[in-house]
Amino acid sequence: MKNHIPRIAPSEITPEEVYLDRRQLLAAGFATAAVGALGAKPAMAAAPPALAPLTAARNSALSITDAPNTFEDITTYNNYYEFGTDKSDPAVQARNFNPSPWSVTVDGEAEAKGTFTLEDILKGQQLEERVYRLRCVEAWSMVIPWTGFSLASLLQRFKPTSKAKYVEFTTLMDPKRMPGQRDAVLRWPYVEGLRMDEATHPLTFMAVGLYGKTLPNQSGAPLRLVTPWKYGFKNIKAIVRIRFTETQPRNSWQVAAPSEYGFFANVNPAVDHPRWSQASERRIGGGLLAKRAATQPFNGYAAQVASLYSGMDLRRNF
Amino acid sequence: MNTTQQFRFIYKPLVFAACAVPAVLMLLGIVGKGPMDLGADPVNRLIHACGITALNMLLITLLVTPVRQMSGWNHLIRLRRMLGLFAFFYAVAHFTCYAWLDQGLDVAAIGADIVKRPYITIGMAALLMLIALAVTSTNGMMRRLGRKWTKLHRLIYVLTALGVWHFYWQVKKDISEPLLYVGMFAVLMAWRIGWRFRGKFAPARAPEKI
Fold this sequence. Notes:
The complex is a heterodimer of chains A (318) and B (210).
Chain A: H1 16-19, H2 22-34, E1 57-58, H3 71-76, H4 89-93, E2 103-108, E3 114-117, H5 118-122, E4 128-135, E5 140-150, H6 151-155, E6 166-171, E7 191-195, H7 196-199, E8 205-210, E9 213-214, E10 224-226, E11 239-245, H8 252-256, E12 280-283, E13 293-294, H9 302-305
Parallel strand pairs in A: 1-4, 2-11, 5-12
Antiparallel strand pairs in A: 2-3, 4-5, 5-8, 6-7, 6-11, 8-9, 8-10, 12-13
Chain B: H1 3-30, H2 42-71, H3 80-102, H4 107-116, H5 118-135, H6 139-145, H7 147-153, H8 155-170, H9 176-196
Helix pairs in contact in B: 1-2, 1-3, 2-3, 2-8, 2-9, 3-5, 4-5, 5-8, 8-9
């Protein structure tokens, strides 16, 4: 059951000099001048740095069978405000971000606290591939083959105490390397959180790779959270801190607009965003005439996760 | 060439070509050619591109009068109808992309959006006003409506304000671009107010010497 999704061979990656075709640059420059707001091709786009291959068997039991989006779609259409607010920005602005060396600080209500290098974090983890749906709060979706490991297997190593009711994650704060942090679009650094039972759910995943390769920078390298039944903004990227807490963390989007974004952020077609409907979604990659698809409760993972929320009013706890 | 001929054979064709550039780039983008990359979500990109171009055209239309007043070149007004009609064209394209490409012409869903989503409600209101102005933009209509025409076409101020608001309201977080449009619209309106009261508060000019 290994390697049955298309891999991108190094030979298929366009060399930088070809991609940076001079005529295209000129055309892009002209177009930008003519209609700046139209979103012409970014003039500085270039081939991404080569990504190291990561071999991992697919976990079929936890993967969906839909065809994944292309590597190009997944890595050029990103909401990652640390590298710009346009979806095409991160692919360009994160190009030279160097996620190595990397370390993660673990603190709060746990016994085995400390600062761990990425190598420490990965030690003993059996990497696997999972094909998950991703549903953005903006009502579009993708199918993504992640490589990584279950978050539960990582968290237990830190021996959380009985006081640990929640886990809070923090993104790197470094405006020099993350130019988007120079604008106060959100309160930096980005913070997200999960309830302990959500964090240790078998579906909750720490991704270090994508499409059988090391995670590209614009996808949250080197370490990002994946919670497939929640809106995409829960999937915090470039994690440098994991803190066990007794009280519910205040996640960045909730802080920014509490009437629009909650802590749980479970995908729910019955609860609209105040400004737009969540009943349907546009699957990226379908082209111009693809029909919108109905959004499923918990993004199609209700059978696995709905019980976590039994008795809760999901209209209030959006 | 007299001025009328200059406009007919030189200025109007040039302005027409310039206003059509965004549409041509979008069409090329749809077939995967040219400099405009529609990206992973082409539907969204087209909706946004048409909408922002409609706003640009509205602001350019509103720029005609201040430039005319500043430069004294009154013939500029001959271009205004074409600019306004291009705003109408891009606004209709914007709505068409939304209704057809995004909503799949699902009348119930579109109706629900218009009723339930305030930013779509005001966008729709602006579009209806713009349609009314486009329909009454002909010479015949100008003649028939007489003074009422001028009053009716002041709706452009209202609908542009609604259009800017529509843009501002649908942005998720980074409001810098909508704010730029608020600013540009405010400057255009401030000029009009200033022009209207010009001389009223300034000291009377000394009589010219003969």
